[in-house]
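Possible regression after last week's pipeline update?

I re-ran a chain I had predicted before the update to compare outputs. Posting the input and the new output here so someone can diff against the archived version. Not blocking, just want to make sure nothing changed silently.
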Amino acid sequence: MATIAFFQNRLGRTDGVSLEVDKWRVILEQRLGHRVLYCSGNNDVPGNYVLPELYALHPTTWKILRNGTVEFADYERESDLEADIYAHADVIEEKLLRFIQEEGVDLLVPNNLCSGGYQPAAAIAFHRVIRRTGLPAIIHSHDFYFEDSGEVNATCHTVASIYERYFPPKLPGVQHVVINRISQAEILRRKQIETTVVPNVFDFNQPPWRMDDYNHDFRSAFGIGDNDLLFLQATRILDRKGIELAIDVVARLNEPTVREKLNGVVTAAGGTVGPESRVVLLCAGIVENIGISGSYWENLRAKAKRLGVDLRHVGDRVKHSRGVLATAERVYSLWDSYVHADFVTYPSYWEGWGNQFVEAVFARLPVLVFEYPVWTSDLAEVGFEVVSLGSQLEGRDAAGLVTVADERIAGAAEEIVALLNDPARRQAMADANYERARSRYSFDNLESLIRGLLEGSRTQVHGR
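New output (post-update):
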């Protein structure tokens, strides 16, 4: 049995990195018999080793992040930012070494800390720790600073040079994992680093999500009736998620000539759509502030109001797991939101892979998709049936929100109406998508890939 430690700026949330780390943990602990530890900047997971400086919202980390990747504003000289980065790296390095020594860690698995670009100090610290300890590491890179997501841009030479040297580290004993073929090709071209593609997966062996005594009141908790149509946006609220495109589609569904075609549709809650029913676009993820302007959610709300779209955010009460807030309000899991949804919107124009898409497929729900680059390179070949918004953005509006051609919006709306009015076709599509995903993205697939990575580590870490 080996002790394997996962590192990330935060864990135990509903973001893709947290969810994938949890899946790796299941494989390593329950199937392969290893001891797994978490180390992150937050304390959402019981037993997690908290290293505050890893958290993006730690005061020093946040200052470096904003000045190094968004706008150089709080320093008079670049050398002052550089000094802060390396001093912060010193702190993180020593705390990492203490944790590793105290817990007897055998294998390091940093997630996105050495690739995404948000944490220059953490990447430097991990580079030093790997060199000092000689421990093997699997650098799991979900996102890279050079990707076209628009989230990370080096503001000065210091940060750019750190990216070049440390993101990701090229060291003996280090294996590199990426989640799509585009990243694999690009990191080979840029850094001459060979990688293994490990796509995001899902536990298709778990029981299907159902309405139960806990989640039966999900709709009513947020003022949504059984006769209302619920479109679920399960992702974080972040610029590249393209949620404005979902607003455009719902606005089209609300146009009288289209809306009347929805009357009589049976909802996921067992109600029936009528003239008084609403079409609700429900955002269940957190509002993300890392690496963006911070105005995205406000811009979405303004657009929805202008177009008469019922847009709601419930991310404060939809979490990684069920629970209770300090105010005694019930907290639902992300999975509970799928149970009550009639349709899932997934209009991202940049994704590293597609967690929420596979979740929707597991829930046997129809999905609206913008065909982002990784969809085209990695997922399209599987043959998933979706309602498509195409693969071309037309431009941006005055608020910086993306647009696609009007005919794409109209076509998607008509296809959604047709599917909602044809339960048999919708079920057949959902069942076919489920089987396609299960054959490619199950825990069995992940176990096979992880076994290969462990065999490749210098410690030859084996399961039982």
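Follow-up from reviewer: compared with the archived run. The domain at 218-440 is CATH 3.40.50.2000 (Rossmann fold). Marking as no regression found.
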